[in-house]
Each structure stands twice: as structure tokens, then as C-alpha cells.
Predict the 3D structure of the following.
Amino acid sequence: MSSGGNRTTGPVAVVDVLLGLALTVGAAAWFLWIAAGPTAQGVLTGEEASVAHRDALALALHWQPSVWSTNAGGQLFYALTGHVTGLLGDYTLFSPRTAKALASALLAPLAYVVARRRLGCGPTAATLGAVLVVLVPGVTSLAWVAIETPLDAVAGMAALYVATSRRWWWPLGGVLAGASVSLYTAGLAWAFAVVVVLLGRVRRPTDALLAVLGIAAGVGVVAAPLAWWRNGGVVVTGGGRDGIDFGAVGARLAEIGSYAVRSGSSYYYATGIPVLGGVVPAAVLAAGALVAAIGRFRAVCPWLLVAAGAVGLYAVSSGVPGARRIVALAIVAGLLGGVAVDVLARRRPVWTALLVAATVAAVAAPMAVGLAAWREDLARGERVMTADWPLPVAPGATATSTLADLDAALRAGRLTVTQVGDGWGGTRTLALLYLLDARHGRPPPFGADQLIAYYATTPDCRALDGPACAPPR
């Protein structure tokens, strides 16, 4: 399993470098353009306020703000990118969306190099696979939202690419798999495939030792925040705290089918566009996956394991359902679409051109058109981004201007930290106020200890086996 996909093993060709760069730039431009539509409305969602701002600040303070804030890798991503953005003087409520879009764009070159170096595709088919990965609505609909997924898929694709390498560094795939899980728990699908690949490489005692070390290092990455947080901590379980639910398997599998072909609309999947674009694109991608599996089973097997892991994990896990948890399935479908073209065309230029054109017409173009229309509706205000958390904004004001007014009121003593927290969105609003000043080199209107003290006295505070939820002295 580890070497079956290594069809291209020679030096990296110039054309691969150029195409990889072009795909990266194109994907970044596409995701940034998509992000500009909802951002034009000036509405910051509650999950973005939590994940990209409050939780990022909390990580720097060695503080886990709630049992739901388990994805320390995602918090670290936003803490680091927020710091860099602050140094550039560009930190705003919506700058994390820019960072997320740019990071998500790495899916394009990763898909290309996987298709070329692991799945035996020519440049044209590999490019098609990368384009499909970017355009599939299950990716684009989430690539700009400043939450965790599909950052887990970026790390997950890199992890599986490394784990299937013939080079000495293959055990490092376990470390990257741990990063994927830490970024977002749906990364367990990628980690599952990586573990199977690493164990499948064992031929002698040395291999076994390396595989175990790689897996153990990945577990260490996931567990590391427990030693960092000073108020106890919870990892992985997060939204699935109710554990495995075998009784809901049938309903969950039906949900996956509905998300794929009917509507992806769900928690933080802002558009109703199906994850796989609709019935026709989904059917074409499913047929492509079948062709790829038959034609290059040994090569694509690790990627099929990712898809199986994503479906299995969704089917048995508890927590809030949603299309955001099956992004890996969408990525594998797009990737294998490119492989199918390569298998069917057999590197014949005419057949390759015809199959690429047919795939673009049946899959890529409808996806792009649908997503562009959705983005334009948001940019024109014909579709409204719902304010889903209690940040009261006066008529004619914006979230940004409201926070500026609150900052001024705190500095003037007209409001206290408790009054702002109680009346304008709790710890999320307080963290925003703190970061908007700190990232621009200004003293915040209150100390970080006051933010944590406020959290410790609110109904939102859940025990984390430590002092954060104890009444302040």
C-alpha cells in the first residue's frame, strides 16, 4: 500500500513547479473572492468570534475557554496568523478569513502533487483533479469561514502524502496526522488512513519501531495542549461529547447523501449548494471514483480509506451534524475525478482533451457558476448573513463601529467589563475588544485576567478540572 501509488518518482519537473504555483495562486484568488461576498455585509459569525479570536487569545493565555474549544491546532493557526496580521497593521474582525482562505488554497498544490507523485497522473489530469478539489462546494463553502475545517484536510493530505513516501521521512506522516486531528476532529478520517498505511509498511522490526514512533508522536501532538492549558483541558471530544451513537447510523448515512446531492445547508455551511454540486456532478464524481478504484486500486487505496473514514466517523459520532464534517469525502471525490480521466484517456492527448472538457462541462463549470452566483447574492445583499450571536448593533452601525464605541466606553468608565460582557456577547466580545487593541500595539481597556475572571463567573463556564471555573478570590 505504501508504494503502489508512487508512479512518478523522478526529479520534479519544471512544469510541475509552474503548475503547482499557478494552482496555488488561482485557488487563493478564488477563495479570497468568495470571502469578499459575505464580508461585504460586515457580519461576524459567533463561531468565528469564538474560534478565530477568543480561542486564539485564550491559547496564548494558557486557558481553554470551554469544553467545546478542543481544537488547539486551529487556535494556534489563528493565534499565529493574527499576530502576523497585527504586525502588518491589518488586524480586523475579518482578517482571519483572509488567513483561512490563503491556507485553504494549499489544497490545490497538495492535490496536484498527490495526483502526480502518488496516483500516477499526467500533468493535465493532475491539474483537473486539483481544480475539482478547489471547486467542489464542500470545500469552497467552508474555505473562507474563519473556523477550523478544512485546515484539517490541508494537514491530512500532507500527512498521507508523507506516509506513502518511499523516503526515510515516512513516519513523519503520523506527526502531521496528529496535527490534522488537533486542527479539527474530522481529521480523524485522515489519521485513520495514515495509521493503516504506517502499519501496512511494517516488514521488519525497524519498520515497526518507526511506525509506532510516528503514531505515538501524532498522539503526542493531539494531547500536548493538556500540558499547556492551566485549567485542565479536553481534547478531541468537543462537539461529540455524547460519544458514539450506533443507533443513528442509518439516519446519519442518509444525511450524508442529502448533503451530497440535495443541500449542504447546515451548521456553518453557509450555502445550500450540495457538497458534491448536485445529482449530476455527484454521479459523475462517483463514477470517476469507481473508475479510479478499478484502474489503480493499489495507488488510490489510502485515499479511499480517507473517504471511508469520513463516512464512518460521521455515521457513528454524536454532536451537531453538518456538511462541514465530511469535507474529506468531497476532497477525495474531486481528486479521484482527475485520476479517472487519466485512467480512461491512457495519456492519449485527444482522449484526455475530450474527457477533461466533458468533466469541466458536467462538474467544474456548474459548481463554479453556482458558487459565484451565491457569492454575488451576498455581495449585493440579496442573501443575508445572519447574526447568530448576541452582539447588539444599533441601526446604521456595524460590528466594527459597535466595538469601537464599547472600547471608548470602557476607557471612559461609562461601562464595566461585566456590563459589556453581559450586554454584548460575553467572552467573545471581550476577547475581540482586547485583541483589536493588542494586535495594533495599543493597551487594551482591561487586562486578560479580567477576561478570564468574567468567564469564571458566567453560566457558560463548564468545569475543566481546574481553577478557571472557580469563583475569583
